[in-house]
Amino acid sequence: MVTSTLNPALLGCLAPAKLNLFLHVIGRRPDGYHLLQTAFRLIDCGDRLDFHVRTDGSIHRTTALAGVPEEQDLVVRAARRLQQYTGCSLGAFHAANLALKFPETFDYALCLSGRYDIEAICGRSDFIEVYYNNPVAYASLLHGEPLERIRRNTFLTLVCGQGAWEDTCLNETHRLADILVGKGIGHERDIWGHDVEHHWFWWRKQIAYHFGKRLG
What we know:
Mean pLDDT: 85
Radius of gyration: 19 Å
CATH class of the domain at 88-216: Alpha Beta
CATH architecture of the domain at 88-216: 3-Layer(aba) Sandwich
Helix content: 25-40%
Strand content: 25-35%
Largest sheet: 4 strands, mixed
CATH topology of the domain at 88-216: Rossmann fold
Structural class: alpha/beta
Number of strands: 6
CATH superfamily of the domain at 88-216: Alpha/Beta hydrolase fold, catalytic domain
Number of helices: 8
Low-confidence stretches: 1-9
Strand order of the largest sheet: 1-4-5-6
Shape: globular
């Protein structure tokens, strides 16, 4: 979960446009996706995507797009596929990823029993979009001003138990925490006991404890 200095029910993201200098289709993968060879440059314009939180778990487009039904909209399809493969149990991943990528917006992230290596869940991928949404991949290479922005503006609390069903989460919690140590990023690594399972019973206790510390 994340705290935001903006409207907590709204997340606005820029989808920057690019100009392909060339684009060659050089093959097709077994899953039907094409293999591409390309070079491109980002340009100073793009679309803005605004996301509003719903309580029913459904994903819908609120703005009509001429000639593109909602079911064929790539943004909607991508969001539904992400929902299918992640779900609520990966809230810690989303919290950490958002805090690291948008530190001025999310000044604190409480990450409970997290998975932070997206390739370990979905398989290895050469897509740059996967890399830039995989905290244990891109965080280890942070440097310069992007790293300083994170150091100045946000703090992550990584919490995990050592009980049933926590093995993988515990491993990835330590991996991300070790990276944050090496990069000098503000964080707390809070490892609970061997009786603490991957379960809402314990997450409620952890939320109360850490929000109590932070909010007084």
